[in-house]
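Exercise 7. Given the encoded structure of a 246-residue chain, write a plausible sequence.
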C-alpha cells in the first residue's frame, strides 16, 4: 500500500525515508488527482504559510479536505499540524488557509524563531503501549508550533514543559510543575505532532500512524519491518540519527 506525502515544501523526503525503513512506499503528492492512489497522507513540517500558498496554487485544499473526510489516516507534523487544525493563531499578516478537521487551536511558532529550536525527551506511554519500545521519545522541535486548546474528542498523546529561552539541547522530563503545553494529539483518523519524528531513527510514530487505519475502519497499512521498527530492540544495533542533530 502507498502513503502519500505532500511534497510542496519541507521535510517530505525525510518522511519518505522513514516510511521506507519500515517497508512502506511513500508517494510524493503535488496534484489533487494523486490523492486517489494513496491510502494515507502525511503533511510534513516546513514553512506553513509557504506550504499553504503552494497548496492553494495547485488547488489541493479541496482534495485534501475530501481526503480527511473519507476517514483515511492523515498526519500533520509541525507545519502540517498547523494546516490540519481548525484554528491557528500567531499567523502572519493576512493569515493562511487551513485544511481543518482537527478540533484544536494551534499557536504557530509557539516556541519562538529558528534560533529557539530544541530537542527534549517526551513521555509517550500511549506510543509505547501500541508500538513497544520505551515510554519516552526524542522530540525534535524546529521553529515549532504548540496546541493551546484541544476539543473533547481529541486524545492528548504528549506534552512538554515550555523551555526557557536558552534551551537548545535535550531537556529532561522531570521539570516539576513548570508550565506544559500539548505537542501531540489524535482525533479519529487524524494525528498531529508539533515535533519531527522523521528526523530521528525511531520509526514508532510512523508505525502508529499506519496502524490507525485498523481503528478507523480503513484497510490496515501493515509494516513489513514491524518487529524491528524500534532499532534499539535489536541486539547489537544502535539507532543512527541525522548528523545535524547528534
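Solution.
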Amino acid at each position: 500500500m502507498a502513503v502519500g506525502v505532500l511534497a510542496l515544501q519541507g521535510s517530505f523526503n525525510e518522511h519518505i525515508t522513514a516510511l521506507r525503513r519500515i517497508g512502506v512506499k511513500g508517494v510524493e503528492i503535488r496534484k489533487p488527482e494523486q490523492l486517489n492512489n494513496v491510502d494515507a497522507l502525511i503533511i510534513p513540517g516546513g514553512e506553513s504559510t509557504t506550504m499553504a500558498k503552494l497548496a492553494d496554487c495547485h488547488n489541493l485544499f479541496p482534495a485534501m479536505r475530501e481526503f480527511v473526510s473519507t476517514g483515511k489516516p492523515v498526519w500533520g507534523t509541525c507545519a502540517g499540524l498547523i494546516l490540519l487544525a481548525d484554528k491557528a493563531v500567531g499567523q502572519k499578516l493576512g493569515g493562511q488557509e487551513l485544511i481543518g478537521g482537527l478540533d484544536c487551536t494551534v499557536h504557530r511558532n509557539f516556541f519562538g524563531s529558528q534560533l529557539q529550536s530544541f530537542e527534549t525527551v517526551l513521555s509517550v506511554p500511549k506510543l509505547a503501549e501500541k508500538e513497544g519500545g520505551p515510554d519516552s521519545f526524542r522530540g525534535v522541535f524546529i521553529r515549532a508550533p504548540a496546541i493551546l486548546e484541544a476539543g473533547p474528542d481529541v486524545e492528548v498523546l504528549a506534552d512538554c514543559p515550555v523551555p526557557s529561552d536558552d534551551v537548545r539541547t535535550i531537556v529532561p522530563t522531570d521539570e516539576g510543575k513548570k508550565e506544559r503545553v500539548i505537542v501531540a494529539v489524535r482525533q479519529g483518523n487524524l494525528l498531529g505532532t508539533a515535533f519531527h519524528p522523521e528526523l530521528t531513527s525511531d520509526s514508532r510514530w510512523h508505525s502508529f500512524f499506519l496502524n490507525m487505519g485498523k481503528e478507523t475502519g480503513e484497510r490496515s497499512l501493515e509494516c513489513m519491518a514491524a518487529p524491528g521498527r524500534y532499532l534499539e530492540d535489536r541486539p547489537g544495533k544502535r539507532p543512527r540519527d541525522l548528523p545535524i542533530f547528534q
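Remark. The radius of gyration is 17 Å. Students should compare their own answers with the one above.
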